[in-house]
Write a structure and sequence with these properties.
Length: 72
C-alpha cells in the first residue's frame, strides 16, 4: 500500500472515532436532560397536589367553623 492510502485510512478512522464519540455524547446529554425534565415534572405535580390538599383542608376547616360543632 502506498503512504497516501495509509494516511487516508488513518484520517478516516480518526474522523469516524470523533463522530461516534460526539454522537454518543449528544445522546447521553439528551437522556440526562429528559431525566431531569421528568424529575422536575414529578416535583411540580407533588407541589401542586400538596397545594390543592392545603387549600381543601382550609376550606373544610372554614366550613366546619361556619356550621359549628353542633351540626348533628
Amino acid at each position: 500500500m502506498s503512504e497516501q492510502t495509509v494516511a487516508l485510512i488513518s484520517a478516516a478512522s480518526a474522523l469516524s472515532g470523533v463522530v461516534l464519540t460526539g454522537a454518543f455524547s449528544l445522546l447521553k446529554g439528551r437522556q440526562e436532560r429528559l431525566s431531569k425534565e421528568a424529575d422536575r415534572d414529578e416535583q411540580r405535580g407533588i407541589m401542586h397536589r400538596d397545594a390543592r390538599r392545603g387549600v381543601y383542608a382550609e376550606l373544610l376547616s372554614s366550613c366546619t367553623r361556619q356550621i359549628g360543632p353542633s351540626a348533628e
